[in-house]
Each structure stands twice: as C-alpha cells, then as structure tokens.
Specification:
Strand order of the largest sheet: 2-4-3
CATH architecture of the largest domain: Orthogonal Bundle
Strand content: 15-25%
Distance between the termini: 41 Å
C-alpha cells in the first residue's frame, strides 16, 4: 500500500488578548533545576482564561480567538491536562510558545504561497514574504 504525503490544512494563528508577564509557576521550596516541567502554550492559557475565568461560552471564546469550536476544545483539553499533571506530580509550569498573535501584533499573509507570519503593529508592512520572497503580501483580514 502506497502512503501519500498529504499536507493538512494550514494552522491559523490564535488570537490572545495578552502574553502573560509571568511565565513560570513551580512548587514552593524546590529549586527549579530539580523539577520536571510541563510547557503550557500561550493559546492554551488563553482558552482556559476565557472559558473558566472569564466564564465565556465556548463558542464565543472560540470566536474571540479566531478558531473553530473544535480547536477551542482541543486547546482546553491540552491545557487542562498539563496543569493537572503539574499539580498532581509537583511539576513546574512554563508558559511559552505556541502559534498565536497578540492584540499588539498584526498578521501578514503571502498571496503567493499562503504563508502567514506576525509582526508588531508599530512596524511597517514587510516588503516581501520571508518564505518565498514574493512581493505580494497583505495584512490578513479577520
């Protein structure tokens, strides 16, 4: 049987209201160097914040983040699993990484290869796509 090399749907950037200023939590009294850790993505934290802290309905939270309800459920499930693991087993939680854009950033899209990237709103529009060097780029419409 021949396996086909298929590319999935391009992942869309998740919108987050802010990137947290505090990026580590750990059990008290144990040096960080002695702890195992879990990495909580910024968008997983945002999903949990919107649904469990701000008490938004999942559908509304998904719209605010610019994702489908199904993607919202995946972010919630993944984030909760990591937080619970850290609490049960005394692991550190590092909040970092992911695939997101914050309110002070813009998303650019290449019309040639559909590549998307983010940049601060205060910066000027890029002259070319960082992937294919095409000059055909625009600000992504929401």
């Amino acid at each position: 049987m021949e396996s086909k090399n298929r590319m999935g749907r391009p992942k869309c950037l998740r919108k987050v209201s802010e990137v947290p200023g505090i990026n580590y939590f750990k059990p008290r009294g144990i040096p960080l160097t002695e702890l195992e850790g879990v990495e909580l993505k910024v968008e997983e934290l945002e999903a949990m914040k919107l649904v469990y802290y701000d008490r938004e309905k999942r559908e509304q939270a998904a719209k605010r983040m610019g994702v489908s309800r199904r993607t919202m459920e995946r972010e919630l499930k993944s984030g909760l699993s990591k937080v619970i693991e850290a609490l049960l087993y005394g692991k550190a939680i590092e909040i970092r990484g992911g695939y997101y854009v914050s309110d002070d950033e813009m998303v650019f899209r290449c019309l040639n290869d559909k590549h998307e990237w983010k940049a601060e709103k205060s910066m000027r529009k890029p002259r070319e796509c960082p992937e294919c060097s095409s000059k055909k780029i625009k600000v992504r419409e929401e």
